[in-house]
Amino acid sequence: MTDPEGTPAPADMSAASAPDASGVTDPATAKPDRRPGGRTARIRAQVLAAVRAELAENGHEGLTMEGVATRAGVHRATVYRRWRDVGGLLVDVIDAAGEIDWQPPDTGSLHGDLTALNEEIQESLTVEPSFAVALMAASFHSERAARAQTRLWEDRYAQCAILVERAAERGELPPGQTDARRLLLAATAPVYHHLVLLRAAPDPRLPEQAATAAVLASAGGAFTARGEGSP
């Protein structure tokens, strides 16, 4: 994924700083890759930082090209020329999340990895103001942003498949028999459901409880990879 200037795109699940998904990092706290690019890169960084701040503070409804240009200290003609509209800004800020050098947790156990992952997700969704929540809401207003966010989540889940691979290598799971995507969805979904759908207060016990449930289910064969031709 690249920005309008050709710079590659991340938990920004991630899009002002640290994950999320499992894309899961909040870009507002993550540290982006330092890439050369001179003035073009500096302008992009200023504009995307302004988008994140505007989106987190005012939501999608308050996100305007003029507001972003003012906050970024960039002429609005530059913003219009490079990003064209709010949808273009959203796509690039999501793509920029993919540029963050985020790695899935490696605690030495599947249970520990899933717990740590859930804790990252919970933090990104509960920090105030939450850029991650604002970005998810914005994706419902822009088809282009929705597609970009889907790509981001696909990448994050693919990255997190290593958690299942390592668990199999340690003997925690049977080699090659666990569907990583299904296990990861089961492990992380309770956190999103609790915080985003129910809008409930953060539960410090939930990340570990959801991880425990997923590990127990995987041990029982709940996420066994379906063979070719299986229903």
Give descriptors for this structure:
231 residues; Tetracycline Repressor, domain 2; 2 strands; 58% helix; 2% strand
> How do the helices and strands follow one another from N- to C-terminus?
EEHHHHHHHHH
Number of helices: 9
Mass-distribution shape? elongated
How does the major sheet shape up?
Answer: 2 strands, antiparallel
Low-confidence stretches: 1-36
> Order of strands across the widest beta sheet?
1-2
Keywords: DNA-binding, Transcription, Transcription regulation
Protein name: TetR/AcrR family transcriptional regulator
Region (Disordered): 1-40
Pfam families: TetR_C_11 (PF16859), TetR_N (PF00440)
Structural commentary:
Keywords: DNA-binding, Transcription, Transcription regulation. This is TetR/AcrR family transcriptional regulator. The protein has nine helices and two strands. It is an all-alpha fold and 231 residues long. The protein has a domain of 90 residues: Tetracycline Repressor, domain 2 (Orthogonal Bundle). Helix 5 packs parallel to helix 8, helix 7 packs across helix 8 and helix 8 packs antiparallel against helix 9. The chain starts with 18 loop residues before the first strand and ends in a 12-residue tail after the last helix.
Brief rundown of the structure:
The protein has helices at residues 38-58, 65-72, 76-83, 86-96, 110-126, 131-139, 143-169, 180-197, 206-219; strands spanning 19-20, 24-25. It is mostly helical and 231 residues long. Helix 1 (38-58) crosses helix 2, helix 1 (38-58) packs across helix 4 (86-96) and helix 5 runs parallel beside helix 8 (180-197).
